[in-house]
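Researcher: We are triaging several targets before committing to wet-lab work. For this one, the compound of interest is zinc ion. I'm pasting the protein sequence and the ligand SMILES. What I need is the predicted three-dimensional arrangement of the protein with the ligand bound, expressed as structure tokens, so it can go straight into our comparison scripts without reformatting.
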Amino acid sequence: MARVAIFLFLLFAILLALRLIGFVLRSLSSRAASGRPAVEGEMVRDPVCGTWIDRRLAIAGRRGSEWLPVCSEKCRRELESA
Ligand SMILES: [Zn+2]
């Protein structure tokens, strides 16, 4: 009987772990959708206005299939309309 309880507990633990993994993967993929994962302390250049910005603070702008970091919503719109 104790075995059944342990089995059920393990099953529950696995389901919980899978949920957690799913949540982590979702948050990672939503991050990837907004741009490349941030690299600590890396400076990137805004191709629109030429400002150097921290990659963590950059906004992901798209030009074709290319991802480019920009400093603001204004620059992002400019980049995407170009
Ligand atoms: Zn800019």
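Researcher: Any quick observations?
Model: The mean pLDDT is 86.
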